[in-house]
Amino acid sequence: MKNIFLTAFVSSLLLASCTPKSSSVAEAPKSATSTAEQMAQGKTIFENSCKRCHGLPDPTAYTSVQWVGIMNSMAPKAKLTDEQHQWVYDYVVSVKK
Ligand code: HEC
């Protein structure tokens, strides 16, 4: 009797430890992962680079069209690369929605 319970216990442990691992690997498409990473980078860059000269702007205070112009004048001030410019833009526009 004891052995049956032990076997059931051990195999349920094995199932529980294997199942989440294999499904999370299968469910992570590369493009979605890098977009989320870039968005997180944009947020970090925004929070670190955009409060040096003035207070941190409120992303929801401007429309996505206004942000195009703002980023075109602010990205050079903050010395962002083209990529960083894009990530910060994607981030501030995502906050609006
Ligand atoms: C080197 C200094 C400097 C840095 C760095 C800087 N800004 Fe600015 N920012 C300014 C100045 C000066 C103004 C006001 C004059 C102007 O509009 O050009 C301004 C104005 C703004 C405004 C108001 C624009 C408006 O039309 O009301 C926003 C929004 C803004 N900045 C966002 C940002 C963001 C986002 C970043 C980071 C990518 C950033 N700024 C980095 C100097 C800076």
From TrEMBL:
Family annotation (InterPro entries): Cyt_c-like_dom, Cyt_c-like_dom_sf
Keywords: Heme, Iron, Metal-binding
Span of domain Cytochrome c: 37-97
Name under which the protein is recorded: Cytochrome C
Source organism (scientific name): Chryseobacterium kimseyorum
Lineage of source species: Bacteria, Pseudomonadati, Bacteroidota, Flavobacteriia, Flavobacteriales
